[in-house]
Amino acid sequence: MTNVTPAELSKAEAKKLTKKIKEATDHLWYLLVDAHEGKAWKALGYPTWEAYVQAEFGMSKRRADQLLEKGEVVEAIQGATGKTGNAFPISKRDVDAVKDDLPAVTADIRAKVDAGQAPEEAVAETIAAKRAEKEQQREARKAEQAEWDRQQQENAAALPSFVADRDAARAQAIAARSNNGSPGNPLAAGLTAEDRIAELMEANASLEREVEELRAENKLYREMKAEFEQGGFAAVIAGRDSVIEAQKIRIESESQEKVRNLRSADKWRKIAIELGYTSREVIEIDG
Q1: Domain assignment of residue 133, yes or no
Q2: What is the extent of the structural domain holding 15?
Q3: 238 found inside a domain
Q4: CA–CA separation, 168 vs 119, rounded Å?
């Protein structure tokens, strides 16, 4: 691969490299990596990398980025094996499998090579293992999504009847308006502009009420949901028990404080009476 320095390319260097990219028939990513890291677009007066690749090569940024990703992967593998050139043909599928975990991949390849395994074999084996791992992850995500969809359907079926009836009525009303009126013209169903506005305002008010109800419900159950996710119903019950216990302690503490205050008041009342004071207020009126 071309030796890449962190220094930006001069205008002349950028022009020369751009010409080489246009004439390249193989291993285009080698040159694109140099152009990207050397900021060739900046040297040639382009505002961005995207503008540069589109104007000079008729290439989309997505395609250019794919080639750069391949360059990053191949360069890392070459560094791990010490072999350069076209020793490791890498497909886009291979790149997608290893690009997000490249340090671990190259460490694995290096360890195999150091243990005596042929570099080509070490690379192929490691990439194949990562591809299998990615496939397992995709299948696991599919299974999770399927289970999530099933739970959603199950929860929808378990909704209270009044919620299901409300949703059904709303869907029927929307369908009726769509059937009676032409698309894009709600007034064709016989509604005046004032009626349509009133209908929309009522619908909006209804949605706002639902949002407030959901917010209140979410606030009420948010803590329980977190507890349930951590430890199931046992954790929820333990959490409620701790709240009840805290409330009991608070009540007892406040009750004891109140008793102490009452006792103190009785004590000072007795002392006041012994000193000749009375609880009655006497107001002297002259004359």
Answers
A1: yes
A2: 11-146
A3: no
A4: 64
Residue 211 included in any domain: no
> What is the DSSP code (8-state) at residue 182?
B
- Let me know: does 61 contact 53? Beta carbons within 8 Å: yes
Phi, psi of 185 (to 5 degrees): -135, 80
Encoding tokens for residue 122? 């070490």
Q: Do residues 145 and 137 make contact, with C-beta atoms less than 8 angstroms apart?
A: no
pLDDT in tens, 143-195: 888 888 888 777 767 766 666 666 677 667 666 655 554 444 444 445 556 66
DSSP 257-272: HHHHHHHHHHHHHHHH
Please compute, for residue 166, the number of CA atoms within 13 A of its CA located in the half-sphere on the CB side.
Answer: 10
Q: What is the Cα–Cα distance from 253 to 250, expressed in whole angstroms?
A: 5
Tell the residue number behind the tokens 């502009």, with chain if given.
193
CB atoms within 10 A of CB 19: 11
How far, in Å, CA of 19 to CA of 15, rounded? 6
- Spatial CB neighbours of 130, under 8 Å, sequence gap ≥ 6: 97, 98, 101, 105
Q: How many domains does the chain have?
A: 1
Is residue 217 one of the residues assigned to a domain? no
3-class DSSP state for residue 65?
helix
DSSP state of 185: B
- Is the pTM higher than 0.85? no
Q: Mind listing the pLDDT tens digit for each residue in 1-14?
A: 444 445 788 888 88
**Phi, psi (deg, nearest 5) at residue 81:** -105, -20
**Of 28, 29, 57, nearest in space to 41 by CA:** 57
Return the structure tokens found at 136: 């397992």
